Amino acid sequence: MHVVIIGNGIAGVTAALALRKRRRDWKITLVSGESDAFFSRTALMYVYMGHMRLQDTLPYEPWFWQERRLDRVRGWVVHVDTAAHRLTFDDGRTLAWDKLIVATGSTPNRFGWPGEDLPGVQGLYSLQDLEALERHSVGASRAAVVGGGLIGVELAEMLHSRGMHVTLLARESAYWNNALPTAEAEMVGGVIRAAGIDLRLSTELGAIEAGDHGRAAAVRTGAGERLPAQIVGLTAGVRPSLGAVAGAGLDAGRGLRVNAQLRTSHPDVYACGDCAEIVDDPERPGRVEQLWYTGRMQGEVCGANVAGEAQTYVRGVWFNSAKFFDLEWHTYGQVRAAASTRPPGERTHLWQDAARRRLLRVDTVDGAVVGMNALGLRQRQDVWTRWITEGRSMADILPRLGEANFDPEFSGKALGQAAGALREVQA
Amino acid sequence: MNRNLTLLGLVLLLVGLGTFVASLFGHALVGGWGGLALTWLPFTAGGLILAVAPYAGTTPGIKNDGIWRGTFSGRGVGAWLLGLVLTGFYCLVYWWPEHLEGAIRALDPLAQALAGGPASQWFLYGYLYTLAVTIMGARMAMRYRHNRYQLVRTASVVFFQLAFGFLVPQLLRAFQQPEFYFTYFWPLKKEYLFPNDLQGLASSGGFGVFMAFWGVAVALVATPVLTWYFGKRWYCSWVCGCGGLAETAGDPFRQLSDKSLSAWKFERWSIHLTLVAVTVVTALVFGNWALGGAWLGEASGKATHWYGFLVGSVLSGVVGVGFYPILGTRVWCRYFCPQAAILGLIQRFYSRFRITTNGGQCISCGNCSTYCEMGIDVRAYAQRGQNIVRASCVGCGVCAAVCPRGVLKLENGPVKTR
Ligand SMILES: Cc1cc2nc3c(=O)[nH]c(=O)nc-3n(C[C@H](O)[C@H](O)[C@H](O)COP(=O)(O)OP(=O)(O)OC[C@H]3O[C@@H](n4cnc5c(N)ncnc54)[C@H](O)[C@@H]3O)c2cc1C
Ligand code: SF4
């Protein structure tokens, strides 16, 4: 049995490991056009900023792949023939498979902006993007980043670390407020500005203008303002990367459609990670999850199912984390971003310290805790997951908030203050 | 503003260094306190400014930008030159102190004031060591000012070096007491369990008896108890002078440690072999003492001598510190220190200490492993959601500090929940 996995990111690699654990004698091949070795995409920013070398982002040493007998093939897949069980690379090589796992990740969104193909304009997703960014950075003094999400703020921080003047354009009226409630969004926006980034909210990209050498020289906002920029970062989200399976006859929507066992419309083809769209989730049909940990969890389930088990992918209580310059964010469960859409019975409770460095928010539905946001406070996942699963009340969790503390020792009394001062608020 | 400040720091440091080098060659401009002040005031002030200025005006938080591109911190030309200077200095201190005579004499006023006698190469060494720990301790505190664990811990190592690593031994000398370091124990200070040394201490009077008792009691009783309760960190990153230097002066080099599996394999052999060696040496000394020197003749003396040369001088000094800019800060602590070996065995098998992993939050970025000075592949555990229980972990807490996703926390708790 030969299982071929397109994509050696977290989803593909986790699937390979889960499969190897169950099937010692199957041949497993990991295919990628991007890199020979599995690296941590989430660490790209730290390589650019000089915190780490590229080799420090590799989660496994070379012996690991040999020991697990995971073959690796470098190349871009351009066609998958599901009838013949064969795939074709861009250089004409072919590879036969018995079962196929598609774990091709994402690709940055483009919206047909004028000038988006100019040299100096780029997204930040792949190793090749990182290399391009290094090239573009030579001699650049001003940069514009378009898109107010998590990667936008990372790219802004990266460019800023090289001494560039960075303008960050976001359509929203407060930073990432389609995911963050106003208080959080304002705190994050404050941090971005305090770091020296020129944050422009409620601002759309109009066009990218070329300079004398045909390279990007400025962006023009929707309102017509011209902002000089030799580097233009486009970080307006990502979408599933489906180039490899285009024309393969597999059912695809936003992503490659899979059932809860992560199997596609073809019985021998599975998909996991960023590129998969989970269709038969009763709560949220057509769900695409573009996170590191969901890639890992999907890979685990996918590998098991390819090995012949019948595991169902259950994500569990939602969580996520990020870091906005120096400000860390932890979230567990569901927190409503837009106060205007809050149904009756749902309440939100907020605490912020005077210096606006820390924040804790807890949402309840009919008195039961359903989600929380923490900024500048590290919070323990297992404790909040338990509280949310058990639907604890505020009165119940407030006295034991300390149990959820995950800040370093001696970190002081922030959480105690929060417990005493969490108040119900409107937004 | 920062640029002017840096320039001022650089000028002051160079004045200090210049007069220091001049004094090495016997060209002190002025003698006595004046000469001392002329070298060490600008050196200290310049060092402090250079250590702290880069962080002035920055927001509190992790500041690792450009570390791997730095000539000193990224194994560039500067690192190799610095390594040469450091190894060279250690060789002079251990084997050719006569070349340091000028600098040693320049410290005489201070030695007189503290210890009531002239300075020696060891006084110079202790003085520079303590200065490095203090100046770079200020840097460490500035870098991690957002992290209370790092502040408390840094204050602790600086205090123990300044007080018990430097001042107290000098004061003991002033009061005609035997030389004694209250923060070193067998097997790091192997003599502190040697029968002749214990007898020597005890025969020097009441305080000597206390010192002899202290050395034995901490080595045999306090060490296992404290390590059970707090892990190895109570010593290695809070008290120990070697650890103190690594945690302060060594901070710019912590990322250079080798994270490979082969390095871990080497470490497990080398560190336990040193422990065996020091145990054998101690046993020989005891045997010889019990039999009144009749047993094995010269063997115990020879063994002690060679152990002192190889382990005490070459591995802990020349390689251990001299190679900071090339191999990272904890080469001695990780591969050779017999004290670390004992504490590590206790920590690995019977301690309440662990680094807890926060569920599934790890994004496998690798910051934790990169900045682990002991070369532990922290990420390998964190990405599987496993707690980290490793013999070599000194509990410096930097992995937890640099983790951008709040995944790691140093904790003490019931042994069975590790
Ligand atoms: C800068 C950045 C920061 C991020 N930070 C975070 C974070 O902090 N937390 C978080 O949860 N998530 C983060 N993410 C998202 C996270 O990295 C992704 O969700 C995750 O990497 C997806 O993993 P995957 O295995 O599905 O796909 P990928 O990692 O994209 O791997 C897919 C691989 O398949 C290859 N491939 C695609 N098509 C082909 C083809 N036709 N032929 C051959 N090979 C092909 C790709 O080149 C790629 O190597 C970040 C993403 C970026 C870009
Ligand atoms: S630094 Fe944190 S997120 Fe990164 S690998 Fe280590 S534990 Fe995981």
Give me the secondary-structure topology.
The complex is a heterodimer of chains A (427) and B (418).
Chain A lengths: L1 E5 L3 H13 L4 E6 L11 H5 L13 H6 L2 E5 L2 E5 L4 E4 L4 E3 L2 E4 L3 E3 L12 E2 L4 H11 L4 E5 L3 H12 L3 E5 L12 H13 L3 E3 L4 E6 L5 E6 L4 E3 L2 E4 L3 E3 L15 E3 L10 E3 L4 E3 L8 E2 L3 H15 L12 E6 L2 E7 L12 E7 L6 E7 L2 E8 L5 H10 L3 H4 L16 H8 L1 E3 L2
Parallel strand pairs in A: 1-2, 1-7, 2-3, 7-19, 9-16, 10-11, 10-16, 11-12, 18-20
Antiparallel strand pairs in A: 4-5, 5-6, 8-17, 13-14, 14-15, 20-21, 22-23, 23-26, 24-25, 24-27, 25-26
Chain B lengths: L1 H23 L7 H21 L24 H19 L5 H6 L1 H8 L5 H23 L4 H27 L20 H8 L3 H25 L2 H4 L4 H8 L12 H30 L8 H21 L4 H4 L3 H5 L2 H12 L3 E5 L9 H4 L7 H5 L15 H5 L5 E5 L6
Antiparallel strand pairs in B: 1-2
The complex binds flavin-adenine dinucleotide (FAD) and iron/sulfur cluster.
Flavin-adenine dinucleotide (FAD) binds next to helix 1, strand 2, helix 2, helix 5 and helix 7 of chain A.
Query: What pair of chains forms the biggest interface?
Result: A-B, 44 and 47 residues
| CATH class (first level) name of the largest domain in chain A | Alpha Beta
Q: Provide the succession of SSEs of chain B.
A: HHHHHHHHHHHHHHHHEHHHE
The largest sheet of chain A has its strands arranged as: 22-23-26-25-24-27
- Strand coverage percent of chain A: 25-35%
Level-2 CATH architecture of the largest domain in chain A = 3-Layer(bba) Sandwich
Number of E strands of chain A:
27
- What's the shape of chain A? globular
Oligomer: heterodimer
Q: Low-confidence spans of chain A: pLDDT under 50, at least 5 residues?
A: none
Report, as a whole number of angstroms, the end-to-end distance of chain B.
Answer: 49 Å
Return residue spans of chain B where pLDDT drops below 50 for at least 5 consecutive residues: none
